C-alpha cells in the first residue's frame, strides 16, 4: 500500500522507517533540500522535495492513489492544510494529521480531520487498523482506546447469508448498533437476517476487534 508522509523531521523519518519495515510503499515529502538528500541516503523510500501544502507536490507524490496521507510536520497549520487537501481535493482513503500543540486537536476535528494524533506509534496503529482489516473501518475510539466503534461490510460469499443476527457467534462485549443495506440505515434486532454487502456498525471492547473481524469475515 502506498503511504505518503509529509514532513521529513524526526517524526516523519521514524514513521517512514516503521512503515518500510511493514513492507509499505513509502513516499516522503520534505521542504528542505539538504534534509531530502539525508533522507534519500537513509531510507529506501521515494523522497519528494517540496511543500506538502502544494497541490502539485501532493499530485506528484501520488496522493490520488495513496492508501493513507500523513501530515506530520512540526507546523500544525501546514499539517491542517495538507490534511484538508488530501481529504477534500484528492479524496484520500485515509488522512492522519499530527498536532504539535494538543490544544489544536479540537480545531482540526471541527474542520473535518478526524484522525488527529500526537504520537508516531499512534499513527502506525491507526494505519494498521485499516490494513489488517480490509473490510473493517475504525469510526471512533472510546474510553481512551479501551473500546471502539467500527463498521464492517460482509463479503460477497459471507458464511452468514440468510442467518439471523442472534445466531452469529459475536465475541463477548460486542453490540451491533446499526445495519446499512442499499444505502438505508436500520436498527437491527436479534431476528434481523444478514446478507452479503450488509455494513454492520458495532461497539466492541478493543481486545475483541480481531476476533470480531475473523467471525464476520467467514466465507462459505
Describe what this molecule looks like in 3D.
This protein is of the alpha/beta class and 220 residues long. The protein folds into two domains: 2-132, NAD(P)-binding Rossmann-like Domain (Rossmann fold), CATH 3.40.50; 136-216, 2-Layer Sandwich (Alpha-Beta Plaits), CATH 3.30.70.1450. The protein has seven helices and eleven strands. A six-stranded parallel beta sheet has the order 3-2-1-4-5-6, sandwiched between helices. The protein has a five-stranded antiparallel beta sheet with strand order 7-8-11-9-10. Helix 1 runs parallel beside helix 6. The chain starts with a strand and ends with a helix. The mean pLDDT is 86.
Summarize the structure.
This protein has helices at 10-21, 33-42, 55-61, 76-89, 105-110, 120-132, 209-216, and strands at residues 2-6, 25-30, 46-49, 68-71, 95-98, 115-117, 136-142, 147-153, 175-181, 184-186, 199-205.
The CATH architecture classification of the largest domain is 3-Layer(aba) Sandwich
- Give the low-pLDDT segments: none
Strand element count? 11
Q: Could you describe the largest sheet, including whether it forms a barrel?
A: 6 strands, parallel
Radius of gyration computed on alpha carbons: 19 Å
Estimated structural class: alpha/beta
The overall number of domains is 2
Averaging pLDDT over every residue, what do you get? 86
Number of helices: 7
Identify the overall geometry.
Answer: elongated
Amino acid at each position: 500500500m502506498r503511504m505518503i508522509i509529509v514532513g521529513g523531521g524526526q517524526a516523519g523519518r521514524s514513521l517512514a522507517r516503521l512503515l518500510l519495515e511493514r513492507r509499505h510503499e513509502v513516499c516522503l515529502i520534505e521542504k528542505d533540500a539538504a534534509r531530502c538528500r539525508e533522507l534519500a541516503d537513509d531510507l529506501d523510500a521515494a523522497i519528494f522535495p517540496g511543500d506538502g501544502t502544494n497541490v502539485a507536490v501532493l499530485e506528484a507524490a501520488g496522493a490520488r492513489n495513496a492508501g493513507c496521507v500523513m501530515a506530520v510536520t512540526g507546523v500544525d497549520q501546514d499539517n491542517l492544510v495538507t490534511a484538508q487537501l488530501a481529504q477534500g481535493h484528492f479524496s484520500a482513503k485515509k488522512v492522519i494529521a499530527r498536532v504539535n500543540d494538543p490544544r489544536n486537536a479540537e480545531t482540526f476535528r471541527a474542520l473535518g480531520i478526524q484522525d488527529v494524533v500526537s504520537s508516531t506509534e499512534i499513527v502506525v496503529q491507526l494505519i494498521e487498523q485499516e490494513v489488517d482489516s480490509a473490510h473493517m473501518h475504525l469510526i471512533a475510539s472510546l474510553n481512551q482506546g479501551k473500546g471502539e466503534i467500527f463498521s464492517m461490510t460482509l463479503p460477497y460469499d459471507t458464511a452468514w447469508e440468510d442467518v439471523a443476527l442472534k445466531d452469529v457467534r459475536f465475541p463477548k462485549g460486542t453490540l451491533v448498533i446499526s445495519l446499512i443495506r442499499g444505502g438505508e440505515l436500520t436498527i437491527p434486532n436479534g431476528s434481523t437476517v444478514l446478507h452479503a454487502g450488509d455494513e454492520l456498525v458495532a461497539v466492541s471492547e478493543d481486545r475483541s476487534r480481531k476476533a470480531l473481524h475473523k467471525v464476520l469475515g467467514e466465507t462459505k
